[in-house]
Design goal:
Four copies of one chain form a homotetramer.
Chain A (H helix, E strand, L loop, with lengths): L1 E5 L7 H10 L4 E7 L18 E7 L2 E6 L3 H12 L6 E8 L11 H11 L4 E6 L8 H17 L6 E6 L8 E4 L7 E2 L2 E5 L5 E5 L2 E2 L9 H6 L2 E7 L9 H5 L7
Parallel strand pairs in A: 1-2, 1-5, 2-4, 5-6, 6-7, 8-13
Antiparallel strand pairs in A: 3-4, 7-13, 9-12, 10-11
Helix pairs in contact in A: 2-3
């Protein structure tokens, strides 16, 4: 079985490298990851300049490449340039920091997995609570089990999984299938002055409304569950088609 | 009525500036746009460095600001920093080039409108065929009508509109509510060598399968319709929740 | 006579555009400037990705191009791509902010003029005190006189001029040929934390030692003179050749 | 003795890492290098956004930091933020690729050493022929000897050394103190079209005139010598001061 790994923390990302090391005994693992950190890059791709690809490591069962692109670029390069055959599964992560609720729209980690799903390859985005112990072997054992399950059962067409793993030090309640919660921010920008007296704005963001729906990824992770949210990427709002057709908008 | 305008072509973008000029007679128009072209940037936001905002023009009914951020950053800056009150509507575009089907996942134009919808502000993303005549007054008259309609009727919660306008030179069939079509690419990268002999890959992409579904934006625009696709941004795949719960994935 | 203009403030830079407008009555003026601000970029050039060139304005006696490169890239593009014949003189500026003493090593404005001199084209870097009135017609009249003089007399091989213009509101003492002064900074970095609590360092820089040598550009500008420093770019320290040869450094 | 190391190839640069490993037995070595490749960046510094510093390795006698800045930024960060005391010497390199003649004006490697000299710290820029064997122990032994000599003898004020090491496979003639040669390029840009049909220009550059002066770094390296060029950074052209004063340039 062939696994393609990527992330948005960059090719030095500890979560991804530890996962690669863990998986390489069982699978043929290829990593194609951004040469530097590209978080909050969402689904950006690089159209207007060329991409570079550099092999940074090769050993038994594991090849690592760095590219000067986004996570989505890396998935494309991995499938179209690096690998001779389509991988059996693509993992994006382990991201150090959760990717929950509305925020996944901004996430490079989740977008890379969506890109894989566009290619019709089973894909899992994996994020870990920042305070968690990345050395905890249970994280890797769980992911191995999940990968096995996905390879065995398959995923529905145009569907991928977004996995968020809480800090195990606070106890593990179990694994839970969740829906995306809502994240509303307030006071998004800190205004300040640089050393030359020039004004700037730095995105801050405090969460304003606490999500309370127990079915959501946000609440589930907070309560100690590993959250698995099934994700699609069809942005059509079918319910509004008829409404729109009734509007009768004039051109001239 | 207050309109906030942005785009991903940058603050010099002709489509946006012409729309701003057209709308400023009727509305109070504020433009906050990237200082340089940021296409294919998707929903990327700038967390790790500060943003700069610069007023580049101020005249009756029109203020224009440039920011060193992404289209989504510009929407956030517009709402949270530039405007004293929430705008009544946000327009992203006019993008010179269509944003259709699966490709909207990569689009900065559409992502800026999604960002607006996250703020619960009615939003329209507008894209124009590259060969079209950006001076054609019918484009602006249609958009004025659409804006009026949205302000009058409102949009359902968490819904925005993605508008694609064909080349009118080939005739206009009318306005059509559409669903997102599918875009599959092949041979995505051109491999080549730079003047110093170093290998590079440049994303190319030929469309491999022709979308034929008449309900889609892709086919509708090709046939000469102005396409309006209602867009949501809830990526939860509800149908798979039960399947996932039945999987019984072990942690250890 | 053909003049090529560039700067490091970007193609919207007011100082450069006003100079271009002033000079276009008398000369054929072509502007090739960075699409965005590139100050403190020094002599950087773009080897590893391609450059784009975009005509942004064309009118009688004046063409303006924007490039996605550095000031030095712009000089190269101007000479090798845009202009059919070598320009008679290249002006870099008017930079809004002085470029004095040791600091010219960091300056994109001065480096662009050095690049011109490498091409054996007479070149002048022009910088203006930040508090000065960029509308003051005397600035432009003086530069016209200086350009005339350089075109008439020529410049020695591998030599260019670095001009710094003080705030005329404080009186003008005259024009003075100067040497580069010394700028020593202390406490160069402000340490701080971003909104996510991550440490960063922002270059600040207070000048520690006041230059007192009256022959220097620093002192001359402070006293109200327009400073003209003749600049070369041969970095060989000839005096040390013999010392080095006496060292007898072993290889193995 | 404390050595600060940097480069413009990035913190993964093999030449720099091998030198660090070699020197750490004898000296206390600290590396502060750009997180990614920054060649041809010249003396650029980062004024308008904050810098990040990340410790990537710590072991006996060797600490390695990555920064999101230029080589000159790294020297400043090394001296002002990372090290408690001024280093005894700063080495920039080993750059994989020579830095010869006029081209050193563009070089990040040489500019980092100039930055060190501005701080009055002895500095050596080191570059190696691209075809050379970076494992050749003689390179490191020679550099150790040179460092010892510089620490013993000191360098004149405002002077640094630019060292270029040829491919030893072609034989080593010895060590030679040199002057900077001249590099003139022709046909600098390759014009081409990207996959979307948009024109671009890629800096190419063929050397047009062959430097023949035996005293130069260019000829010396070609002949098999290790070249050491003493470098200063006073760009004043003193010979032109009197000429300029005689010009009598009018202001109005």
């Amino acid at each position: 079985m062939k696994i393609l790994l990527t992330n948005d923390d960059g090719v030095q990302g500890l979560g991804m490298l530890k996962l690669a090391e863990y998986l390489k005994d069982k699978y043929k693992v290829t990593v194609v990851a951004p040469e530097k950190e590209r978080s909050a890059i969402s689904h950006a791709i690089t159209l207007h300049k060329p991409l570079r690809l550099k092999k940074v490591k090769e050993e038994d069962g594991l090849k690592i490449y760095a590219a000067n692109g986004t996570p989505s670029d890396c998935v494309k390069l991995g499938i179209e340039v690096v690998l001779e055959e389509k991988p059996d599964i693509i993992i994006s992560g382990i991201n150090e920091g959760l990717n929950l609720g509305t925020d996944i729209l901004y996430s490079g980690t989740v977008s890379a997995a969506i890109e894989a799903a566009i290619y019709a390859i089973p894909a899992i985005a994996v994020s870990l609570a920042e305070t968690a112990d990345i050395e905890d072997r249970r994280i890797y054992k769980f992911l191995e089990n999940l990968i096995e399950k996905v390879l065995e059962k398959g995923l529905p067409k145009n569907t991928l999984l977004n996995v968020n793993i809480p800090d195990f030090k606070k106890g593990i309640k179990g694994v839970k299938a969740t829906i995306l919660g809502k994240r509303i921010y307030i006071e998004t920008f800190q205004k300040n002055y640089d050393p030359r007296g020039k004004e700037y704005y730095w995105m801050a963001g405090k969460i304003s409304e606490i999500e309370k729906d127990e079915r959501t990824d946000i609440v589930s992770v907070k309560e100690g569950y590993i959250s698995i949210t099934p994700i699609h990427f069809d942005l059509t709002e079918y319910n509004m088609i008829n409404i729109l057709n009734s509007w009768d908008i004039k051109i001239e």
